[in-house]
Amino acid sequence: MSGKINAVLTVLLVGCALSLVNAQYQARHLFIELERAQSQARQLDIEWAQLQLDQSTLGKHARIEEIAHRDLGMTQLTPARTQYLTEGEQ
């Protein structure tokens, strides 16, 4: 009888040990995935900050005005060049 109990307890002990090894493997795997995700999040934060900087630089009024003048040949609007239309004229 005691031999059967020892055999059952040995099988339970081996099962628990295998379960522990599997749990540790899963924990390591999840930790590696977490590190990868955190690294990717840091990289995305860096890219986001760079894009915000680029947007603020590219959207400045002086830069837009300079490109309009240089590339499109546009000039400043002056009162001498302004034409007013009234409703009755054709």
TrEMBL record:
Keywords from the named record: Cell cycle, Cell division, Cell inner membrane, Cell membrane, Coiled coil, Membrane, Transmembrane, Transmembrane helix
Localization per Swiss-Prot or TrEMBL: Cell inner membrane; Cell membrane
Function: Essential cell division protein. May link together the upstream cell division proteins, which are predominantly cytoplasmic, with the downstream cell division proteins, which are predominantly periplasmic.
One cellular-component annotation, GO: cell division site
Residue runs in coiled coils: 27-54
Main location: membrane
Membrane topology: Single-pass type II membrane protein
Name of the protein: Cell division protein FtsL
GO biological process per UniProt: FtsZ-dependent cytokinesis
UniProt similarity note: Belongs to the FtsL family.
Subunit and partners: Part of a complex composed of FtsB, FtsL and FtsQ.
NCBIfam families listed in its UniProt record: ftsL_broad (TIGR02209)
InterPro entries xrefs: Cell_div_FtsL
